[in-house]
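User: I'm putting together a teaching handout on how multi-component assemblies are represented. Below are the sequence lines for each component of a complex, exactly as they appear in our records. Could you produce the 3D structure of the whole assembly as structure tokens, so the students can see both representations side by side? Please keep the chain order the same as the input.
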Amino acid sequence: MPTLAERLGFAATDRVAIVHVDDLGMCHAANEGGFEALVRGPATCGSVMVPCPWFVEAAERARQHPELDLGVHLVLNSEFPRYRWGPVAGRSAVPSLLDEAGYLPRTSLETLRRAKPEEVEIELRAQVERALEAGIDVTHLDSHMGTCFFPPFLDVYARLAHDFELPVFVVRPDRATLERAGIPGALEVFRRLVETLAAGGIPVLDGFDANSLGFREGDGETHNLARLAGLAPGVSYLICHAARDGEELRAITPESAHQRGFEHRFYGGDAGRRALEQAGVKTVGMRAVRELLRAERRPPGGDR
Amino acid sequence: MPTLAERLGFAATDRVAIVHVDDLGMCHAANEGGFEALVRGPATCGSVMVPCPWFVEAAERARQHPELDLGVHLVLNSEFPRYRWGPVAGRSAVPSLLDEAGYLPRTSLETLRRAKPEEVEIELRAQVERALEAGIDVTHLDSHMGTCFFPPFLDVYARLAHDFELPVFVVRPDRATLERAGIPGALEVFRRLVETLAAGGIPVLDGFDANSLGFREGDGETHNLARLAGLAPGVSYLICHAARDGEELRAITPESAHQRGFEHRFYGGDAGRRALEQAGVKTVGMRAVRELLRAERRPPGGDR
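Assistant: Of course. Below is the structure of the complete assembly, with chains in the same order as your input.
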């Protein structure tokens, strides 16, 4: 069977990055920086946080730019201490998804401790449906803070992929990666997820680099050149959080404002484009993966 | 019977302003500018929008400054086009309070058209209760965009005042004011509200000036000096919307950013303090009105 890279038209030995902007809609700065990266920079796709206050602006920009490749960043957390959001399905519909203050919990572990999988499914379906209703041509799904990757929620994640016929951010698991991600013991569950997805014709990615925010001020270029150099052959999800640095972003997340601002400048302009070229990394978006999925799921010549 | 001004320790002929900051919690800029007006400026009290994304920050500042005089700005609208919020009670609990996009409606009239009074009551009680749970010593209630003043919602407003033993922003109505406010035909309903409140020991204010945002850039001082000059004897609610002007505020409300920014500088510092003095206007907060209400409702020496 040809590799995912080959099925997308690349060579099996190519290193192919899905340059992905997380957190669109999270705040105005995320929309300003994130959409600039998508429109002008080498970022190929991004995903939108439906429960967040600035989602409506993100959807408006998506409608203005239907060529953009946008998915739904499935949200089970509201992580910042002073800027909060609640579930889309409504607090009384999904009470197990709320923390003491009435918002989605701040950490993945708190969501894991509280959330009933059936309410997770209600909420995440509502997020996808609201994105579609808002006119976003949803190309893929992924998981904010990786909370969907906890074993109790993996089935929901897989069901959404099947039901909406969408590729998801998921890779073949290995023990070390899962341990680093804070979900040890999930190897077998994860393997089953990948098998279920593959059996249903949902493509599984070859790798990822989620180390988007782990650098000190001034080290952005070095850090990101190393990320590009570290990509293995195959199709990898390269996560970034491009957002315009400024007073709003600093108020929400002083811890990660400079990193998000750097990624805005780097993946929103020529610096990132040149770095990808010089590293010999090719790029692709999730819409191409979705079209592959839908083409492969249907017999040639069959009806849509 | 002595006037409200006299019961608060002023002379009946004094012009007394409740210098009130609306929209705390609406955004970070509203918290920055609004709390500065309360802590450093002549603003005497303000009210917090519980359903808004930055409510948690407002509550945190309220806990840090328990001396501040803060009420709940009862919210039935989410008026800005790209920055939205939903009800506190949860979308499935109060479906008549949602617009097509799933948020509180953008205009008062749309709320009037959609909202069932019993769901308005569920939502507004949830807002007051969440403010209390967040540690805010709620001193009063008022109504964001005046939506509670539509006749179908007036009984809810009065019941909340009674049940929580809180003064509300309300004045004796006259036909011209109600017509200017876009609620003609409400005179009799409004009169009954005021009678109900007064009979229950809830003080009614003598006047108000809500013309906080109606001036062009550069005209802020002239406009606000005229507002102060126009106050009649008695206790008047002087509404302002102090917020820090900047990128966040401009993104949310380009139409009213310079006015909110001016009011932050004016009512957040010596200019407003001097202007009040020179106009001979005295000031008081709603906590004093609440203490008056609670004292008058109880027989001398009776149990709390």
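A couple of points students might notice: The beta strands of chain A are 15-24, 45-48, 70-74, 141-143, 207-209, 234-240, 281-283. The interface with chain B takes residues 28, 53-57, 60, 81-86, 88-93, 101-103, 130, 134, 246-248, 251-252 of chain A (CB under 8 Å).
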